[in-house]
Design goal:
Layout (H helix, E strand, L loop, with lengths): L3 E6 L2 E9 L5 E3 L4 H5 L20 E4 L4 E4 L2 E2 H7 L2 H10 L5 H12 L8 H7 L6 H15 L9 H27 L12 H10 L10 H13 L7 H10 L5 H13 L6 H14 L5 H8 L20 H17 L4 H15 L1 H5 L7 H11 L6 H22 L26
Helix pairs in contact: 2-9, 3-18, 4-7, 6-7, 6-11, 7-8, 7-18, 9-14, 9-17, 9-18, 10-11, 10-18, 11-18, 12-15, 12-17, 14-17
The structure holds acetyl coenzyme *A.
């Protein structure tokens, strides 16, 4: 296999090394392109062909529909591991043994509170505020309450910062929901598992004992694992690029939450449910929406379909589809939009427009149906995604800092005016 690539510009040839990934991916290393060619750069809007880093965290093959965290198949992790184990794996590189997991959980629990003053910030938001805006702001506010920056050269300081955010973030998630639902704030219970505690903090009513529902705990555990990392997507790249300026971990995460919010990224789970609901209210027929999705004059897209990297089934979508059937069945919930979703999927998979463009259901297509069955309000869906993605963002931020990556600062090709003589106000 070739170890160099040759580029010819204006008759001049330049050689560049070719990097081989452990899964035989090839990349042309253009670090010296600009310097070596006297100013030539590459342009790649949306970074469709650009690798921004070398990473040892997540491998995905969009053509074959493969997703692995640290070498472990997503199917195995979703089936056999718990969310906190997967978080540990993503962040530190290996599955924890029992003692490490216990210690990790108890260290996280020791941080599972936020400064009481944070409540005042939460109070200041209108009830109608979108939970993603609230979550991003509260995460950023944590920076004010934890001002010292992490000493990334100290393993202990890194570990403590990670335990801190893994402890505090679920509190913010739950409070964001309780603000929306008008419930008094709750701090959860140290005796519960990480995921069970999150559910308790979200749903506990002030006048009732809270009883866990194992079906819901297991379903949320699985959903969080499936969302935990996805290599250099929009929000993760945001976390890495913000962190590359040596902004703090919490500030970088807050930026990642904002990036996740958009409907083309994590916000799609809310958009899918709203789309399916609109189809239901319209009588259940999908033809109109299929036609809209294919109409180039109409900005409408079939939400939950298509992916920048997967040109085959998103393996997460396959698992979530099965889980949706199981969870709704076990909970005894009959949701007509599950049938609408299945019908829409069949129609799209058989439609030439979708076949030609290799558009398949993505992770968000069925997740909202499960969240809804759990009693989570639709505006909270992307917050749940953020909760799942947190370990991935942390792992990617940590990797970027430990590898001492340079500040992210892309170049551009300028297409504006050439130099112009300034005209005074009265001459324009
Ligand atoms: N519905 C209809 N047409 C679509 C869809 C869709 N959901 N997705 C892509 N297409 C079409 C585009 O119009 C384009 O058609 P063209 O070649 O005729 O111009 C072609 O497929 C390629 O689409 P791009 O937008 O170039 O693909 P890109 O990789 O930039 O976008 C994205 C990927 C943003 C996910 C896109 O498929 C999309 O908007 N999907 C709907 C939103 C969604 O579900 N997002 C969640 C993604 S998963 C995640 O982030 C967690």
């Amino acid at each position: 296999m070739s170890n160099t690539a040759t580029l010819e510009i204006n008759g001049e040839k330049y050689e560049f090394p070719v990097i081989h990934g452990t899964e035989n991916e090839l990349a042309i290393d253009i670090k010296r392109l600009r310097g070596g060619t006297g100013g030539v750069i590459t342009i790649d809007p949306g970074y469709k062909n650009t690798g921004s880093c070398e990473s040892a965290i997540t491998f995905l093959d969009g053509e074959k529909g493969i997703l692995r965290y640290r070498g472990y198949a997503i199917e195995d992790l979703a089936e056999k591991a718990g969310f906190l184990e997967v978080a540990y794996l993503l962040i530190f590189g290996e599955l924890p043994h029992a003692e490490q997991l216990d210690k990790f959980h108890s260290d996280i629990k020791s941080h599972a509170y936020v400064d009481e003053e944070v409540k005042k910030i939460l109070d200041g938001f209108p009830k109608a505020a979108h939970p993603m805006g609230v979550l991003s702001s509260l995460t950023s506010a944590l920076t004010a309450f934890n001002p010292s920056s992490v000493n990334v050269d100290s393993e202990e300081a890194m570990y403590n910062a990670i335990a801190k955010i893994l402890g505090k973030f679920p509190v913010l998630v739950a409070w964001t929901m309780r603000k929306k639902t008008g419930m008094p704030l709750d701090y959860g219970d140290d005796n519960l598992g990480y995921v069970e505690n999150i559910l308790k903090m979200m749903f506990k009513r002030p006048n009732q004992e809270y009883t866990q529902n194992d079906i819901i705990v297991n379903a949320l555990d699985k959903l969080l694992i499936l969302h935990a990392d996805h290599e250099q997507n929009c929000s993760t790249s945001t976390v890495r690029i913000v962190g590359s300026s040596h902004a703090g971990l919490f500030a970088s995460l807050s930026a990642g939450i904002s990036a996740l919010w958009g409907p083309l990224h994590g916000g799609a789970n809310q958009a899918v449910l709203e789309m399916l609901e609109a189809i239901r209210e319209d009588g259940g027929g999908t033809k109109k929406y299929m036609a809209k999705a294919k109409d180039k004059g109409d900005p409408f897209r079939l939400m939950g379909f298509g992916h920048r990297v997967y040109k085959n089934f998103d393996p997460r979508a396959k698992i979530i589809k099965v889980a949706a059937d199981e969870v709704l069945g076990e909970l005894g919930v009959e949701d007509p939009i599950l049938d609408i979703a299945k019908g829409l999927e069949q129609e799209a998979l058989a439609d030439q427009y979708f076949v030609d463009r290799k558009l398949y259901p993505n992770v968000d297509f069925y997740s909202g149906i499960i969240y809804r069955a759990m009693g989570i309000p639709v505006e909270m869906f992307t917050v749940m995604f953020a909760l799942g993605r947190l370990p991935g963002w942390i792992a990617q931020w940590r990797e970027m800092r430990l590898r001492k990556e340079p500040i992210g600062r892309p170049r551009q090709v300028y297409i504006g005016e050439n130099h112009r003589a300034f005209k005074n106000l009265n001459e324009r």
